[in-house]
Design a protein that fits this description.
By secondary structure, the chain is an alpha/beta fold. The protein is 29% helix and 24% strand. It has helices spanning 43-50, 117-120, 127-137, 154-165, 177-185, 199-206, 222-228, 252-258, 267-273, 275-290, 309-317; strands spanning 2-6, 18-20, 31-40, 64-65, 69-76, 88-92, 100-104, 108-110, 145-149, 169-174, 190-193, 212-217, 229-237, 261-264, 303-304, 326-328. The strands form three sheets. Strands 3, 5, 6, 7, 8, 15 and 16 form a seven-stranded mixed sheet that branches. A six-stranded parallel sheet has the order 11-10-9-12-13-14, sandwiched between helices. The chain is globular and about 60 Å long.
């Protein structure tokens, strides 16, 4: 089969190449084989390709196939799998930039009714991160106010919708007019352009000067976010997408003065350590999907085939992408909403 194979880390995404490798085969009673129709692009793919992620020192080392999220059809089931071959599914697992992938049964779920492969490709590794961080870790509640950074990105769009689903007021922060509009389309009550100096004041103005209860930060804006936080609020550190090699240092007296809770969240690590928490997270996500509270937000540019993986990664690096960029691996009559 064809795959974007990392035999050694690259400096430039143009150096990524399509390789012909043997099709993967399930090796355990809990593994299933998936025919991939559409794969989604994530910020972590940028790091994995260049060997810049902490997991590249442990779990993800060459050779490996790039990609993290997918949607497709079940090609080969397993004794523990409740789905039959041909079922339209979405999921997550290292190796989605390929024709096929083998993953544990726990990593896949049926595509929601009315969703296409394209719609569902960006759910598997995005929805549980935003839900786990906001609901499980920060305990966001009805009538609280949450500030969501990078609100037009994959995690951000999901966080905005999850915040609204639990009855919170959502203030979205995004870079530029277009991305602020995307955040509003996702349901944000207020959108603030954080590429404009002094954006923190607009957040405070939107809360009557009190600040927000929770900050969802996948970018690396802890210092400025503290200015927006209500006394005793919770600041969620989910990632550092905007601060590669420039991770900020924060004066901890400011955390003390605000009596703020600073919470880190890594879904992948939590999944490895606390699998029962993952079950709980997906139960909550599935309920929101069933009630139509989460909608797909797909970037407008079409990427066709594995040949377009470098172009998609370059666009993500250049901050052109909003929502989820997806790559059409295979186009079939089944690539439609059901």
């Amino acid at each position: 089969m064809k795959a974007i194979r990392i035999s050694k880390f690259v400096e430039n995404y143009d150096d990524l190449q399509i390789s012909n490798i043997a099709s993967p085969q399930p090796r355990g009673p809990d593994e299933v084989l998936i025919d991939i129709h559409v794969a989604a692009v994530n910020f972590v793919d940028l790091l994995y390709a260049r060997g810049k992620h902490q997991n590249n020192h442990t779990f993800i080392t060459p050779p490996f196939t790039l990609g993290l999220e997918f949607a497709g059809t079940l090609a080969q089931s397993s004794p523990s799998c409740p789905y039959t071959p041909g079922t339209r599914i979405f999921g997550s697992g290292i190796g989605s930039f390929a024709s096929q992938i083998v993953v544990p049964t726990s990593s896949i779920r049926p595509i929601p009714p009315g969703w296409s492969f394209e719609d569902a490709a960006g759910l598997g590794a995005t929805a549980p991160v935003s839900y786990g961080a906001l609901i499980e870790r920060a305990g966001l509640k009805r009538e609280e106010t949450v500030l969501v950074h990078a609100a037009a990105g994959g995690l951000g769009c999901m966080a905005v919708q999850i915040g609204k689903a639990v009855g919170a007021r959502v203030i979205a922060a995004a870079g530029g007019v277009e991305k602020c509009e995307i955040a509003r389309r996702c349901g944000a009550d207020v959108a603030v352009d954080y590429s404009v100096e002094g954006w923190e004041r607009k957040v405070l103005d939107a809360t009557g000067g009190e600040g927000v209860n929770v900050v969802f930060d996948p970018v690396g804006l802890v210092e400025k976010s503290l200015r927006c936080l209500k006394f005793g609020g919770r600041l969620l550190v989910v990632g550092f997408a905007g601060t590669e090699k420039r991770i900020e240092k924060v004066a901890m007296n400011r955390v003390l003065l605000k009596q703020a809770g600073v919470l880190g969240y890594r879904y992948g690590e939590s999944d490895r350590r606390f699998p029962l928490e993952t079950v709980k997270i997906w139960k909550g996500v599935s309920k929101m999907l069933d009630h139509g509270l989460i909608k797909p937000v797909i970037y407008e540019k079409r990427y066709q085939g594995l040949e377009d993986v470098p172009r998609a990664l370059e666009d993500l690096t250049a901050r052109k992408v909003w929502g989820k960029a997806v790559i059409h691996i295979a186009t079939t009559p089944r690539d439609m909403k059901m």
